[in-house]
Amino acid sequence: MRHPGRWLAVAVLAVLTAMFVHMLVTNDAFQWAFMVDNMFRPPIIEGLVRGTVVMTICAMLLGVTLGVVIAVMRLSDNPILRAVAWLYTWFFRAVPRLVLLAVFGNLGILWSRIEFGVPFDTQIGRLFGIDNLELRAFGFTSRDVLTGFMAGLLGLALSEAAYMAEIVRAGIQSVEGGQAEAATALGMSRGQTLRRVVLPQAMRVIIPPTGNETIAMLKDTSLLLYVPVSMELFFQLDAVGKRTFQIFPMYVAACLWYLLLTSVLLVGQYFLERHFSRGYGQQARARMKLRGFAAEQGGGGGGTGAVG
Amino acid sequence: MSDELMVRAENVHKSFGPLEVLKGVDLAVRPGEVSCVIGPSGSGKSTFLRCINHLEKINAGRIWVDGELVGYRERGGKLYEMREKEVAAQRRSIGMVFQRFNLFPHMTALENVMEAPLRVRRESRAEVRERATALLDRVGLASKIGNYPGQLSGGQQQRVAIARALAMRPKLMLFDEPTSALDPELVGEVLDVMKDLARDGMTMIVVTHEIGFAREVGDSLIFMDGGVVVESGAPDEVLGNPRHDRTRTFLSKVL
Ligand SMILES: Nc1ncnc2c1ncn2[C@@H]1O[C@H](COP(=O)(O)OP(=O)(O)OP(=O)(O)O)[C@@H](O)[C@H]1O
Ligand SMILES: [Mg+2]
Hints:
The complex is a heterodimer. Chain A is mainly alpha-helical. Chain A has a single domain (31-276), classed as MetI-like (MetI-like fold), CATH 1.10.3720. In chain A, 72% of the residues lie in helices and 4% in strands. Chain A has 13 helices and 2 strands. Chain A has helices at 4-26, 32-38, 42-74, 79-94, 97-105, 121-127, 142-145, 148-174, 177-185, 190-220, 233-244, 247-276, 282-296; strands at residues 113-117, 136-141. In chain A, helix 3 (42-74) packs across helix 8 (148-174) and helix 3 (42-74) packs antiparallel against helix 11. The relative contact order of chain A is 0.12. Helix content of chain B is 36%, strand content 27%. Chain B is built from 9 helices and 12 strands. In chain B, the strands form 3 sheets. Chain B has a 6-stranded mixed beta sheet with strand order 8-9-10-3-11-12, with helices on both faces. A 4-stranded antiparallel beta sheet of chain B has the order 2-1-4-5, covered by helices on one side. Chain B has one domain (7-252): Rossmann fold, CATH 3.40.50. Chain B has helices at 45-52, 84-91, 109-119, 125-138, 154-166, 184-199, 211-217, 235-240, 245-254, and strands spanning 7-16, 19-29, 34-38, 60-65, 68-69, 72-75, 78-81, 94-97, 172-176, 203-207, 220-225, 228-233. Chains A and B meet through helix 9 and helix 10 of A and helix 2, strand 8, helix 3 and helix 5 of B. The complex binds adenosine-5'-triphosphate and magnesium ion.
């Protein structure tokens, strides 16, 4: 035999796999029939659609949009905008998502009503001898809005925006400065340059980590249990498990559901990445392969290989 | 008085922090004139060129293009900087070609050329496509219309870049060492396109190390060193009979 070590490893893995399958089939705690009966119940499917799929889409849309804005602020010439952007990313990256969601779920304690208007209006009024001056444009009762889905969405989206801002910033900075200069020299405005020249190229750098963020977001919707958001996949599975005292089968069901959903996203990610590598066709790919090859050979890290 | 000149620069100063790069540059370029700028590395040639389309703000002095003050508005003897939009409008009629081409790598050659007329001038797509195709044909790239920059040679990329600038119908073209990043055998094809442009009556300011080009095509030659224009005049005169030591020293190295 040419590779005795390889064959030994295969043999060990085969035994381990057989043991695992044996456990899956023979251990009663799995309750497979019960799991299959329960994992497709209407509230669970509704939770999956609304709390997991729709929530992921909304949180990512909001998070990416806000992330782009913060990244642009971070790269602006204005020191105040830069500082605000830095503070934002610092805060939302420093607080764990789970904690953030618990906080957002309980914001109602801070204000029973949320109102928009002149800050300190009553105090200012008192300064000028006016009692109970109220300059408020509009308001709403926070319990109507800032609970459940909205609180969860806000928590996830604001936190996502901080991570997306860093990703977008790295993407923008990866675009060679000469491109923006050429666009400017052609008379394009700053906005046009960003939209037409810089961002499309930054996409190549932005898309892969954004795909990963989307997958992470889909998984993190399970954290909505702590807001709580009841119309959500994990909340519903957990509820069935607790109600029936069959918690373990429902957690296995959760694993299977998330495996399925993330696998779908992985396929989407593949096609998106292919689309955005336009213009970096055979040559760039060949160059990347070469670089990978050199690395495999233990060759020093090749240069970044300027395009052109 | 500056009306009959295409470009007129007066006492242009530019500093980067404590480093004064331009120390009072004057220039006059008539319509249709090809003005070549030579000089040692770091003498401020690129910086001066970038001041002409306000890619760099100047610290003192004035620049007019086609009789219009660039980047500033004069009111009561004082200069006020223009808003970004107004500067962008001025840049539309000034084409620029860079040493490193700076094509948009995610667009095909044709899309590169069409981009600015479509987005900036908001012309009709059919008309722009026709003009862009004709321009690419003129620079000898009719067959490369659908190629991305990464699929073109350096010389071909630079010719696309020239076509891209021409698509805005500029009245002035600025070239910053357009052939310096090219392999020697590709220099000729780019210079040929530039000669063709010059013959067509385009006003051009060309920063270059190609002394042969300056002699053959240039109407005037400017030698810059240390942030000032040391010597200028007809190319044959400056090259054949330099009056300043610094010019002589520089020429002895490049000729
Ligand atoms: N953005 C900048 N910030 C700081 N210094 C700069 C900047 N751009 C140019 N300089 C400096 O200004 C001086 C003149 O640069 P410039 O590029 O105009 O020279 P050049 O004559 O074009 O040289 P070359 O022939 O090498 O292109 C150099 O010392 C350079 O380091
Ligand atoms: Mg230069």
